[in-house]
Amino acid sequence: MANVQKTYALILGLVLAVVGLWGLFTQSLLGFFGVNVLQSVLHLIAAAFGLYVGIKAEGKIFNMVLGWVGLALGILGFVPVVKDLLLSLLNINTATTLLHLVIGVVSLGVAYLVKE
Fold first, then answer.
1. pLDDT of residue 43
2. Residue 116 has what pLDDT?
3. Any alpha helices (H) in the chain, and if so which ranges?
4. Which residues face 33 on adjacent strands?
5. In this structure, is residue 116 part of a structural domain?
6. What residues in the chain have per-residue pLDDT under 50?
7. Is residue 115 part of a domain?
């Protein structure tokens, strides 16, 4: 059976790479999700780690870290002062906040509930 932790990290790394590259050329993905160059660079850095652990290392730690970061961004995106800061620095809008929340919960679920 395939290692679910590594597979999830690899898939998430690939998605983050596409989002990061795409975000370098636009301020909105699919008309919903706000992005900018800084956020895209952060996505590309996370993508590099995801691809590495998905291919060469263990994925559980990556999934945990990305899960907690996604959950934190998802929660903080609803705090009025922080929401404005995230919007101005990273162009994180409500749709992006909700996506971060979902990715955070799913990543934590994979990290903590899936046995290798």
1. 96
2. 67
3. 4-23, 37-55, 60-76, 80-90, 94-113
4. 29
5. no
6. 1
7. no
Residue 61 lies in a domain: yes
Q: Does residue 27 lie in a domain region? A: yes
Burial of 79 (0-12, 13-18, 19+ CB in 10 A): exposed
Question: Cβ of 46: how many Cβ atoms within 10 Å?
Answer: 21
**60, two tokens:** 């559980």
Query: In the Cβ-directed half-sphere of 46, how many Cα atoms lie within 13 Å?
Result: 25
- What predicted TM-score, i.e. pTM, was given to this entire model? 0.90
How many separate domains does the chain show? Answer: 1
Per DSSP, 16 falls in state H
SS3 string, 57-73, reads CCCHHHHHHHHHHHHHH
